[in-house]
């Protein structure tokens, strides 16, 4: 995960280094989960603690990666599933910490998504209407919605089917609503901001798992 600072594209090609002492990280320490345990949560040179969010991110991604083995995924585009998880989970953690969404990650997600989906999920009319509608909503509620969330939704509508995108947005607000209710019940202090991307991640997983059922309900089934 990246620290909150201006992004340098050399980060993409240089060897991984400690954020504190800039020492190169050995190969074993780069292995997800095991590397954190091997290093005992510290840089082996300067002994500064490694942010636990790194370990949490790796653990969460590992669980999500094996989810299709444990649960039947109704929407069977696994390239899209893993692409979204690889980007959305780190974005969710970053958003939860900094309430920001890095533009370069959105750019990479868009380019990679269009390439892997071969532009199959682009519907020019639907996507244009959705993007305009999203920006209109932002214009009305810009004090309540971050523009980073708007940009993420615009990227998602271009690399996912229109119906899937609709389910993701709908479920994200349902999940967010339940979260707010739970927080209100257990917390005594008020909060001003809520990160939106974690709800997007949850709703995306739910959509992949229950896509056929949601589609049936959407078109009048089970009613």
Automatic annotation (TrEMBL):
Belongs to the peptidase A24 family. Keywords: Cell membrane, Membrane, Transmembrane, Transmembrane helix. This is Prepilin signal peptidase PulO-like enzyme (Type II secretory pathway). The lineage of its organism: Bacteria, Bacillati, Bacillota, Bacilli, Bacillales. InterPro entries: Prepilin_IV_endopep_pep, Prepilin_pept_A24_N, Prepilin_peptidase/N-MTase. GO terms for biological process: signal peptide processing. One of its GO terms (molecular function) is aspartic-type endopeptidase activity. Its main location: membrane. It is a multi-pass membrane protein. One of its GO terms (cellular component) is plasma membrane.
